[in-house]
């Protein structure tokens, strides 16, 4: 099927750039994506419409990591998001396989990496839109440092994360360590990833990725 003939169900989502970015990170870090040795600090790069942490934002201390448990639902109260989470692996190109195009309200978890709430960096990916409507992470770049993200787990616990960084990384500025590596060793961290930048109609893909970084600060039931 040619590009103009694709149905709205498949949408214009992630046709190359976004998941190629994920491929780059996984190619560099492989299954050790949660084990980068050095934390990341200092200036961040990206789109200033949604980037970094204002210097006056006070963030809570990190909580000790939880054990491993499957994620079931992602809640982002500030964006009105409540979405089921499904385990995903790698596609035929070696990139993280996103949720099916006909399920734009579902979030994918990279199951070969850390579980949300456990030590390491857990990766959650989702679509930004379809040809006809917004998808689950449409408003992701509107998150700000200090806001809360919750992941409901199969063990009955709710892992509560605090956002500490939001970036929009373009192809020429993408850095796999910055995107996937832990900000601080020993923490339970979370990355939410979707498309960003502008939509290139010629390539039918987005020019960047929105990457939200958060860390475990509490639990609930």
Automatic annotation (TrEMBL):
<dbReference type="GO" id="GO:0016787">
    <property type="term" value="F:hydrolase activity"/>
</dbReference>
<dbReference type="InterPro" id="IPR023365">
    <property type="entry name" value="Sortase_dom-sf"/>
</dbReference>
<feature type="transmembrane region" description="Helical">
    <location>
        <begin position="12"/>
        <end position="30"/>
    </location>
</feature>
<dbReference type="InterPro" id="IPR042001">
    <property type="entry name" value="Sortase_F"/>
</dbReference>
<keyword id="KW-0378">Hydrolase</keyword>
<keyword id="KW-1133">Transmembrane helix</keyword>
<keyword id="KW-0472">Membrane</keyword>
<dbReference type="Pfam" id="PF04203">
    <property type="entry name" value="Sortase"/>
</dbReference>
<dbReference type="InterPro" id="IPR005754">
    <property type="entry name" value="Sortase"/>
</dbReference>
<protein>
    <recommendedName>
        <fullName>Secreted protein</fullName>
    </recommendedName>
</protein>
<keyword id="KW-0812">Transmembrane</keyword>
């Amino acid at each position: 099927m040619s590009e103009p003939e694709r149905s709205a169900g498949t949408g214009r989502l992630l046709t190359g750039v976004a998941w190629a970015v994920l491929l780059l990170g996984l190619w560099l870090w492989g299954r050790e994506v949660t084990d980068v040795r050095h934390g990341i600090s200092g200036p961040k790069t990206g789109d200033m419409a949604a980037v970094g942490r204002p210097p006056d934002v006070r963030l809570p201390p990190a909580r000790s990591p939880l054990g491993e448990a499957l994620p079931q639902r992602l809640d982002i109260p500030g964006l009105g998001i409540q979405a089921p989470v499904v385990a995903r692996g790698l596609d035929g190109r070696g990139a993280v396989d996103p949720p099916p195009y006909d399920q734009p309200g579902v979030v994918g978890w990279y199951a070969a990496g850390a579980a949300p709430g456990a030590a390491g960096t857990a990766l959650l990916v989702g679509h930004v839109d379809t040809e006809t409507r917004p998808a689950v992470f449409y408003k992701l770049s509107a998150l700000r440092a200090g806001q809360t993200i919750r992941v409901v787990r199969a063990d009955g616990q709710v892992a509560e994360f605090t956002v500490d960084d939001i970036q929009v990384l373009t192809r020429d500025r993408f850095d796999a360590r910055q995107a996937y590596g832990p900000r601080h060793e020993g923490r339970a961290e979370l990355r939410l990833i979707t498309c960003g930048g502008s939509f290139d109609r010629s390539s039918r893909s987005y020019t960047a990725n929105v990457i939200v970084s958060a860390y475990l600060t509490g639990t609930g039931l």
